[in-house]
Each structure stands twice: as C-alpha cells, then as structure tokens.
Amino acid sequence: MQRAELEEMKQHQMNLVALQAIGPRKKPCLEGLGAAGATVSNGGGHSDGDFTGRSHLAFRTRPKQINHRDMMFLMEQKRETAYSQILYRNYLK
C-alpha cells in the first residue's frame, strides 16, 4: 500500500516538473493594450513603461507568405485584375 502511494507521489512530482519545463499553457495576457497605443501615438517615442520586450513583439506585424494558387484566386476575385494580361499569362504556366 505504501509502495503504491509512494509511486503515485513520484509520478505526480514528475508530471509537475514536466509541466514547468514546458511552460505556461495559455498565452500571456497583454494587459494595458490601450496604454500601448497611447505610447506609440504620443510623438512616436520609445517608452518601455510596464511592457517587457516580449509584449512589444506581440504588436509587430509578421510578413505573410502565400502560394501561387492563392494569388491567382485573389486576382480572379478582384475586379481590377480579373481580366488582366498577368492573370492570363499565369494560366498558361
């Protein structure tokens, strides 16, 4: 009986250590989102305030990558490019 309890406690401790090694399960809450907008709008100066370097990265836009088929679909949907020569040349490729 003691051996089973001891084994269960060991397993529980190992699980806790593994969870701590992985890190938090939820994304950190960006507190003061309005304050970040105010920081950027007042002259464009760089003010750290409450924010760490990690939260500054959350506001930076990342470049998006699309493939050729997605671009073709987008061009077909837009009125300006639906009948363009570029679109028809790409159909031939």
Task: Summarize this structure briefly.
One of its GO terms (cellular component) is transcription factor TFIID complex. This protein is an all-alpha fold.
Throw out a few tags for this protein.
93 residues, 0% strand, protein heterodimerization activity, mainly alpha, DNA binding
Portion in helices: 55-70%
Question: How would you describe the shape?
Answer: elongated
> What is the overall number of helices?
5
**SSE class:** mainly alpha
Provide the β-strand percentage band. Answer: under 5%
- What pattern of helices and strands is seen along the backbone? HHHHH
Termini separation? 73 Å
Kindly state the mean pLDDT as a whole number?
A: 76
| Low-confidence blocks of residues | 35-46
Number of strands: 0
Largest sheet: none
Task: Round the Cα radius of gyration to an integer and report it.
Answer: 26 Å
What does this structure look like?
The chain is mostly helical and 93 residues long. The longest helix is centred in the N-terminal third of the chain and has 21 residues. The termini are far apart. 1% of the residues are buried. About 13% of the residues have low confidence. It comes from Galleria mellonella (Greater wax moth). GO terms for molecular function: DNA binding; protein heterodimerization activity; RNA polymerase II general transcription initiation factor activity. InterPro entries: TAF4, TAF4_C.
